[in-house]
């Protein structure tokens, strides 16, 4: 049962200040505990507890055992860390009246449109949810089912329903995490990680960065290396797209070291380790570090040899998936021939989801386009669209290749069909 103390004006004031030390002091006093008593329970000195209560920021490694000892609800920790916010008081399906024009979702949408950015209207609700998470419509026990549903939509390339599904999923997952268990916190982290991957795919990097940051914080609260690795990967993808290659590398390498330190005792940890090696290799390739990229992708291949041919658990890496990353690494290093050769060693049947099969074809399309082969590029793009249309229409970088191909090579085989697909028929006729 939720402790009403945390809804009191005093508690709400401390939460709003986002001062972690003040929160610790408040929780200690709520339990009628002196600093010396808390110090004994935590195996710390009284002066250490006193110093901690003066600090605005405390590491999650320090905060986690204190939260357990002082029974601080997860939603309170999340709010103080800036991870989550008090839920709206609205009923299902309604929205609170905005406090100002800046808070009005429709106002924000018009401002974004005026700035020349393309933001799907369906994302407005998800953007608003990040500011004030709605009350959950489903019980906490429904999170695994909702997460499987959201993952299935992503894997099948049915992205138009993702914002609404993610909003409901995140609301339910955060409510489920109020019991402060490591498993619940890890579950929320995986939900935000999926949200970040979806938002990165459609090039909404501001929102994707917010989701990745929350995924990472929840992962640290859980202490689960799998959740930490998955969230770090999501964040590194955002940083890479923001041209922050150095930061992306640091995030990835830190997560790699954390996972490797476990000794990789389970297949899931081995898979996550291989996944992070792939991400690190691609990040190095985008930064132009040829030797590091080749070394990392080779190590990923060696790590993946003992893995099953189908995805398992939180990581989706397989030997074939490593091969797909190799295509991307060669393309990023401007080795189009090597990228095509690596891609032709793979077959769509090695990938169980339409999203991954579509990704194989789009990665090959990028390589063929880099090589200056319009016919093969068109063929690859059409193959991708047959697997998952959103891989061509929903990813701005791939759609840009398709548009340029239609404009520059209107007579090439396959381009007429491609022009119909992307709605560029009139453009093709004018060329």
Automatic annotation (TrEMBL):
Q: What is the protein's given name?
A: Helix-turn-helix transcriptional regulator
What species was this sequence derived from?
Streptomyces daliensis
What the entry lists under InterPro entries is as follows: Cro/C1-type_HTH, Lambda_DNA-bd_dom_sf
- What are the residue boundaries of the HTH cro/C1-type domain, all occurrences included? 24-76
Q: Which GO terms describe its molecular function?
A: DNA binding
